[in-house]
Structure formats: C-alpha cells, structure tokens
Design a protein that fits this description.
Strand content: under 5%
Structural class: mainly alpha
Number of helices: 21
CATH topology of one domain: Serine Threonine Protein Phosphatase 5, Tetratricopeptide repeat
CATH architecture of one domain: Alpha Horseshoe
Helix content: 55-70%
CATH class of one domain: Mainly Alpha
Shape: globular
Largest sheet: none
Length: 408
Amino acid sequence: MLQDQRLLKACEARDMGAVFRLLNARGVSTRRIAAAVEISQGRLYDYMNGKTRVEKLALFEQIADAFHIPGELLGLARRPWEPDLASEIPTPALTSPEAEGGGDLATVEAFRRADRQAGGGRLYSAVVHHLSDQVAPRLVDIASSSRVFAAAAALTEMAGWMAHDSGRDDLAARHFARALFFARASGDLPLTAHVAASTSHLSLQTGDPAKAVHWATVGIELAGRGPHLPSLLARLNTMLARALAASQHYGPASQALDHAHAALALGADDEHPWLSPFDHATLASESALAFTDLGRAEEALRYGKQAVVLREEGRTRSLTFSRITLVRIHADCGDLDAAISVGTELLDTSPTLGSVRVVHQMDELRELLGRHRDYGPVCEYLARFDEARSARQLLLADIIPLPRGGLT
C-alpha cells in the first residue's frame, strides 16, 4: 500500500480517518484496526467518518507501528522497527559514478542537460517513457541493487519537475511522492533529503508555505543523519527560509538563509551522483526571492543582480527566471528604466523554451508593468513584449494550447 497515492496523500495530510478507510477497503476489518491501535470501534468510526481527527503524537506513533507506516510519512522520527538507512548507504554511490548504475547516471545527466536548455514541457514524455520501459522492469528483478531504486528516484523526481514546468502541479506532487518512496527504498539518505527539498519547493510554489516548512525540516533532519553535503544543506535551508518568509516568520527565515549561505561558503567537495547541483547562482536567485518576501528591497536587488551575473548562458530557463525576478524587483523599487533594461534582455531569451512556468511568469510580469503604462518607455516596451509573447505562443502551441479564437 505504500505505493498507493491515496495512502501517501492521507499520510501527508495526517488524515488517519482516510488511512483507516483505505485499510478497511483492502480487507482489514474495523475490529482488527481498532484492536491494533488500542481504541474502541466507536472511536474508530468517528475517525473514519470525519467526526474527529487523530491529534495526539502517541496515537500517531501507535498507528505507524501497528501498520508499519514509515515514521517519515507521518512527520515522525524513524520508528524502532525501520532499518538504519544511514548504515545502508553504499559508499561507491557517493564517490564513484562509474560504478554500477553508470548507465543510469549518464541518462539522468543527459535529461538534466536538455531540461536546462529546452525546458521540461517537451521532455516529460521522454522521461516517463524511459522510466516505464527501462527502469520499472528492473525494480522487480530480485538481482537488482539499491542503485536501481536510486535511479528510479532521481528520474521520477525529474519527471515531477518537468510536470511542474508544464503547469501540471498535481501530477508533479504525485511524482515527488513516488520519488520519495524510491529514494527511501534505495537507502540513500541524501537523495531522500533532496526529494524532500523538491517537495518543499513545490509546496511553496502552489501556495502552501506550512507544508513547505514541514518538508524542508524533514529534509534537514534526513541530511543530518547522512554524509555531510554542504550544498544539500544549503538548498534545504534556502527552502526553509523561503517558506518561513512566505509565512511571515521573518526572524527564523533570516536565520535559515544565513545557514544556507554559510553551508555553501564551505566549498567542500560534496558531489553526489544523483543530486542536481545547487550552486551560488541558484542560492542568489532564491535569496532574492526570500528577501523580497522579507521586505528587504536593497538585499533583494543585490542578490537579484548577482543571480543574473553568475548564471551561465547555457542555463536558459534559470537565467530567464533570474531576469524575471530582477525586473520585478526593479519595478517594485520604482526604477522603471532599469526594469525595462533587464526586460529587454529577457525578450531575447530563447522563444522556444518549453516551459509553461516561464510563460505564466512572463504574463504576471506584463501585468505588473502594465500598471505603469502611462510612462512612455514602459508603454513602448509593452508593445515589444506583446509581439514577443505572440511569437512565443505560436512556437509553443504544441505544449500550450492556444485560446479559442486565436491569440488574445
């Protein structure tokens, strides 16, 4: 049942009534469920019917232990019956990409390079096809090693990001939940923490900062039990900072951001074969967003400029997002000429970049600048913007359906 998306969602929401209903639907009688968690059947029916919810930590722990639900799925510490994953991490996985699974690593890297330049909209189907045809059959092969599960986790997490890039956030969440399962099965703690960071990021993008805080915290706890990887800790603390800033917890957010910068400043050789890199350009870009939410415009502007300078041209999508952020910051600060200057560079970004997220953020940017259309240079820029948007919509019609009646 740990592969049942309904169960994973119920656990994530800590909805034990839903968990009990799923168990009952699988043939576990209400009498056995009540006996296993030592509650009356009347109380069980209240949970199952939604009249009340499980709130006490001790009962969550008892449910996890009774049905062998991993503690992590319920936001609990590792249960005593769970294996010590830290002792099972294969050392070669952290140091030797050429070891077993090198073919999978090469595939992950190939998809990763293409995604950075072309966007996930056109690559999603290819990744899912590879998972289905090349990876899934090996997951049930008794001779397969834990590295197959690591490959499945890395590629499934990548599929999640590509779904998100295509504007399908519900699908992305399901991919991340499955990637978390595969990462846990691989025994690779850093990879599991990495997927938790992605889940946190998606939660923030979909407007749930509380869930984003939860998953960032889970990731930090997992990372602390595994090999010391400063860039992973930097990413997790950055996600925590952004979620806290969005929740208006300004002091803890600033502290988490300080931890992120301190971790990445260590400059340790912390490469991990399955993790996508988290570099100084990415940290600067996320810091600009966090400082914007914190209301610290000067620091947001400094990091926004730094993100554009540090990001290499080959990372088309990342550079596009960094420029969008910088245009917004300039506009919010009232420097419309600077916003137009960066915005002009933004229009030169590859118009065939297959990213629905980019299109949506560009539209939001147009709405922001549209408030200043009475300023001549902005009005002229918006005319060029609309021409570029029309061309982009035509070139991306295969992944972004045109509205009825043509372009608007």
